[in-house]
Specification:
215 residues; alpha/beta; Spore Coat Polysaccharide Biosynthesis Protein SpsA, Chain A; two-stranded antiparallel ribbon; 7 helices; 10 strands
Length: 215
């Protein structure tokens, strides 16, 4: 069974569509939504026995939201997903994933192969390897393997930290998925200051020295 963790600012229309499917998926026993917009009126169809909505007093941003979701999760197997991705036939996808979980501590999204295959493809990444683009939009990991992201890292590098601190990692490609990349960061103005800070050379150096050992 999986715990599904999704931070949101409610900016993606895909989230409203995908949540209707998530509720039906038997392999997901709980859905933890970190609500980073306390002013938003949550639709009634989000009320469900699988769904827990953790409403924050203000936007705590994506990485602290991941930390919170992992802390609250009841299952060892975790899905950490963006709110702007919708994967078709997810129950089938997770059934395939379960057969491979003993081999991996971390799976991330393979955007280069998704929508270009008829199968669920799971492949190990070569060593050494750099984090693939969009790896963190949909990740599957274990609660015991998740590395807490420091509180000062708000938006970027969260998936890098998981990627570079877990050696048994792979990529997941699916036959059909829809993605609205960076829907929230493009629409929320107060993220720009944090993005600018996290893009500074001294901040990158700190991340690299603390976490990003290539393996």
């Amino acid at each position: 069974m999986f715990s599904l963790i999704i931070p949101t600012m409610w900016k993606s229309t895909l989230f409203h569509k995908s949540i209707m499917e998530y509720k039906k998926i038997s392999k997901i026993s709980e859905i933890i939504i970190i609500n980073n917009d306390p002013t938003y009126k949550v639709p009634t169809y989000f009320k469900h026995n699988k769904i827990r909505i953790l409403t924050q007093k203000e936007n705590i941003f994506v990485n602290p939201a991941w930390n919170l979701g992992v802390l609250e999760a009841k299952n060892e197997n975790l899905i950490i997903a963006n709110d702007d991705i919708q994967i078709a036939k997810l129950n089938w996808v997770l059934g395939v994933v379960e057969k491979h979980l003993k081999k991996y501590d971390l799976l991330g999204f393979d955007i280069s192969k998704t929508n270009k295959t008829n199968l669920v493809e799971i492949k190990p990444l070569p060593k050494p390897s750099r984090r693939p683009h969009a790896f963190g939009v949909f990740m599957i990991t274990k609660k015991s393997k998740y590395v807490k992201i420091p509180d000062e890292i708000k938006i970027w590098y969260g998936d890098d930290i998981q990627f570079y601190t877990n050696k048994r990692r792979g990529i997941l490609a699916v036959p059909s998925a829809t993605i609205e990349m960076s829907k929230t960061t493009k629409s929320i103005s107060n993220t720009k200051k944090i993005i600018k800070t996290e893009d500074r050379p001294n901040f990158k150096k700190y991340i690299k020295e603390k976490f990003l050992t290539l393996n």
